[in-house]
Amino acid sequence: MADITLISGSTLGGAEYVAEHLAEKLEDAGFSTETLHGPLLEDLTPSGVWLLVSSTHGAGDIPDNLLPLYEAIKEEKPDLSAVRFGSVGIGSREYDTFCGAIEKIDQELTACGAKQIGETLKINILDHDIPEDPAEIWLGSWSKLIGEL
């Protein structure tokens, strides 16, 4: 089993690039990773450390490739008390639903007993042409927190 499972949800591919970049940085730091783009609930082990990276589209909507996972968690309410997670949202502050998708995902994971590590990073694409840059900075402090688990 990987030390960290990265889960991405993306409409145009930005969140996938960020997840792959973070996986590379985590591996450079000595962690093993597994990156899953739009996995289903049955693809995930209900334990360990998850790092979610999701874009938001529409009116705070979850990307189509992550929607089946989100809906399964919301409907089935699996026991995720053995999961520790971090999350990165990507969106535009032009919308009042800025990073709404990651907020919804965080809420459902917490409702199923998962424990969040650190604060959710919300990347405004208007401020960052390359969302991997602020994500990498955030990852430095987040990976210290998971090292303390």
Characterize this entry briefly.
With 149 residues, this protein is α/β, with parallel strands linked by helices.
What does this structure look like?
This protein is an alpha/beta fold and 149 residues long. It has helices at residues 14-28, 67-76, 100-111, 132-147; strands at 4-9, 33-37, 47-55, 82-91, 115-116, 121-124. It has one domain (4-147): Rossmann fold (3-Layer(aba) Sandwich). Strands 1, 2, 3, 4, 5 and 6 form a six-stranded parallel beta sheet that branches. Helix 1 crosses helix 4. The longest helix is centred in the last third of the chain and has 16 residues, at 132-147.
C-alpha termini separation: 17 Å
Going by CATH, what is the homologous superfamily? Flavodoxin domain
Please state roughly what percent of the residues sit in beta strands, choosing from under 5%, 5-15%, 15-25%, 25-35%, 35-45% or over 45%.
Answer: 15-25%
Specify the CATH class: Alpha Beta
Mean pLDDT: 93
Shape label: globular
Residue stretches low in confidence (pLDDT < 50, at least 5 long) are none
CATH domain topology: Rossmann fold
Order of helices and strands: EHEEHEHEEH
The helix content, as a percent range, equals 25-40%
Structural class: alpha/beta
Gyration radius over CA: 14 Å
For the secondary structure, the number of strands is 6
In total, how many domains does the architecture comprise?
A: 1
Number of helices: 4
> How many strands, which pairing sense, and closed or not: the largest β-sheet?
6 strands, parallel
In CATH, the architecture is: 3-Layer(aba) Sandwich
